[in-house]
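pls design
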């Protein structure tokens, strides 16, 4: 399992397969958001989204970003279940009164 630190999200993943264990080791890279421009809010964890030996195809709702990944490996199936923690990106400098106003 991997959860990025405060105000950061997953920006990359590398996996390596190991034949002896018939499993992959995953490394997730986190990227820090500029807190003067962006803030992560309303983070929610999905729970496991797939069953073993089934595809997982998931996109964070409302254009959110992935802050965390959860997985469970099952040796008999030689497969994983996946879940994700997603957050909304908000813009602290954006004032609702400024929408549609241009100088």
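designed seq:
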């Amino acid at each position: 399992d991997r959860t990025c630190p405060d105000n950061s999200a997953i920006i990359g993943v590398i996996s390596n397969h190991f034949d002896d264990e018939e499993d992959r080791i995953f490394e997730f890279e986190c990227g820090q958001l500029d807190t003067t421009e962006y803030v992560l809010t309303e983070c929610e964890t999905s729970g496991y989204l797939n069953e073993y030996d089934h595809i997982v195809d998931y996109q964070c709702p409302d254009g959110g970003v992935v802050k965390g990944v959860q997985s469970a490996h099952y040796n008999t199936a030689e497969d994983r279940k996946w879940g994700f923690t997603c957050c909304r990106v908000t813009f602290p400098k954006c004032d609702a009164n400024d929408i549609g106003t241009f100088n």
